[in-house]
Write a structure and sequence with these properties.
The protein folds into two domains: 231 residues, 2-Layer Sandwich (PmbA/TldD fold); 218 residues, no CATH class. The protein is built from ten helices and 17 strands. Strand 13 and strand 14 form a beta hairpin. The radius of gyration is 25 Å and the shape is globular.
């Protein structure tokens, strides 16, 4: 097996490195076939990045990374074996294929095992505008992190300490190939600047922060603006109160509203469904949300955070609705889970791509929805993992602000919000257009008409 030396791969440009990964993939597939595998698939990846951390004006860490990974899966009929390595030496690659084959020969038949159907493989590869490398040097990254932290500390005399600031950049290259003759190449970049600040003294200290992240450098917020936003959020949390236990409307800020979409995705994922461990079993075609609610998957969105022409099985992705007029249109399936359920893959092996949750009315933002809510709770932070995926029961620690007569008044903490996800979905009253752009789930502020809020008062 002839492979490119690691040092040569690092020196080459991205297109040349992708070709090298594709060449390695082909050699591994050929070796698997020679060893008797009826089908095989290979994933090759290469990640490089720079990350710096500062605190109180001093540099804490500077880390440069360069990682590679090779994963091989082989099928002998319906028996499957997998092995992986980070070593590109020919002997290691040969041994990885042989290990995967040895494992497959000792496993039981699985009727759902095997590659996705050949006619479902992606054949078109649109330009997704996901490659924006940033030649960021360590000293530049340090300056950005220091500027971010300084802006936060200088914003208000009540900022008493900091948990530090960071600046990072990274790029990833990957190839997925299988014995259908499919070769898919992907490349992407990611950049971020963040800071966490502490305000107050003693038992009255509060912590919060902010960050900006993007695929392209020009889409990042200014470091000083990030620092000031972090300071504003931290100061706003000072002198929190608790609340009396009662039922009330709860408004989720955009950065926490997307967690509710995450619970939906978990419940309609193939793995949870075929294991019978979801509260949304047999929910296809049923009304889960208000009739005005729409959720769409947009995998070919230019500069989208999870744009892709194909999924983890090589299946072509497509724009489609997950929720239309409040009704669940489909599950989230890869080829394996689809076979387990007797259904067709939805092109979601490896997860969903870009999701867009439509606003209930144009122009709504958090403050407009708070006025609509009247009196209730604004949640800006969630804690704990109190979500039961089998029953849908929901109970999580929360922090945020008391809202009265449509005005955001004072911070609250030490509270728990509880309900059942099925009921919560039906009780959504508004979704804002104030989308947080830092996620592949595009959703604004979200208002639920009634939840149980448990406090200490």
């Amino acid at each position: 097996m002839n492979v490119i030396a690691p040092e040569a791969a690092v020196a080459a440009g991205p297109e040349a490195r992708l070709e090298q990964l594709a060449d390695i993939s082909q050699q591994l597939l050929d070796h698997a076939r020679r060893l008797g595998a009826s089908q095989a698939e290979v994933s090759c990846s290469e990640d490089r990045g720079l990350d710096v951390n500062v605190r109180l004006g001093e540099v804490e860490t500077v880390e440069s990374t360069a990682d590679r990974g090779i994963a091989v899966t082989v099928y002998f009929g319906k028996r499957k074996g997998s092995a992986s390595t980070a070593d590109l030496q020919p002997s290691s690659l040969v041994a990885t294929v042989e290990q995967a084959c040895a494992i497959a020969r000792h496993t039981e038949d699985d009727a759902a095992a095997g590659l996705a159907d050949a006619d479902l493989m992606a054949r078109e590869f649109p330009e997704l505008d996901s490659w924006h490398p940033w030649a960021l040097q360590a000293d530049q990254a340090i300056d950005l992190a220091l500027a971010c932290e300084a802006a936060g500390r200088d914003s208000d005399a009540r900022i008493s300490n900091t948990d530090g600031a960071s600046a990072s950049t990274g790029q990833s290259l990957s190839v997925y190939a299988n014995s259908h003759g499919f070769f898919g190449r992907e490349r992407g970049t990611h950049h971020s600047i963040s800071v966490a600040l502490i305000a107050g003294q003693g038992d009255g200290m509060q912590r919060d922060g902010w960050y900006t992240s993007a695929l392209a450098r020009e889409d990042l917020e200014d470091p000083a603006a990030v620092g000031r936003k972090a300071a504003e959020r931290t100061i706003a949390r000072l002198q929190p109160r608790s609340m009396a236990t009662s039922s009330m409307p709860v408004l989720f800020a955009p950065e926490v509203a997307r967690s509710l979409v995450g619970h939906l995705l978990s419940a309609i994922s193939g793995g949870a469904l075929y294991r019978q461990s979801s509260f949304l079993l047999d929910s296809l075609g049923t009304s889960l949300f208000p009739a005005w609610m729409q959720i769409d998957e947009l995998p070919h969105l230019r500069r989208g955070r999870r744009s892709a022409a194909f999924d983890g099985d090589g299946v072509a992705t497509r724009t489609s609705a997950i929720v239309r007029d409040g009704v669940l249109q489909r599950y989230i399936l890869g080829s394996y889970s689809a076979r387990k359920l007797g259904l067709q893959t939805t092109g979601n092996a490896g997860g969903v791509h870009n999701l867009q949750v439509a606003a209930s009315a144009p122009g709504l933002d958090l403050h407009a929805i708070a006025r609509q809510m009247g009196t209730g709770l604004l949640v800006t932070e969630l804690m704990g993992q109190g979500v039961n995926g089998v029953t849908g029961d929901y109970s999580r620690g929360a922090g945020g602000f008391r809202v009265e007569n449509g005005e955001i008044l004072y911070p609250v903490d030490g509270i728990t919000i509880a309900g059942n996800l099925r009921d919560m979905f039906q009780s959504i009253e508004a979704i804002g257009s104030d989308v947080d752009p830092r996620s592949h789930v595009a959703i604004g502020s979200l208002l639920i008409g009634k939840m149980t809020v448990a406090g200490n008062d």
